Amino acid sequence: CHKKFCPLGHLNCLKTLDVARVTAAADRLLKVPAAA
C-alpha cells in the first residue's frame, strides 16, 4: 500500500520482504537519472 504506517497494525508486508526484492528495487532507483 506504500503507506508510512501500517493501516492494519502488523507490518507483515515489511517483515516478509525478500532481500533480493529490496536490492532489485534499490538498483532500479539508482539507475534513474536525477531530475535537472
Structure in words:
The structure is a single chain. The termini are far apart. The chain is 47% helix and 0% strand. By secondary structure, the chain is mainly α. It contains 2 helices and no strands. The protein has one domain.
| Largest β sheet strand count, sense and barrel closure | none
Class by alpha and beta content: mainly alpha
User: Domains counted in the coordinates: how many?
Assistant: 1
Approximate shape? flat
The helix tally amounts to 2
**Overall residue-averaged pLDDT value:** 84
Please compute the radius of gyration using only Cα atoms.
Answer: 13 Å
Report the oligomer: single chain
- Cα(first) to Cα(last) distance is 29 Å
Helix % is 40-55%
Give the uncertain stretches in residue-range form: none
Strand content: under 5%
How many strands in all? 0
Could you spell the SSE succession in H and E letters? HH
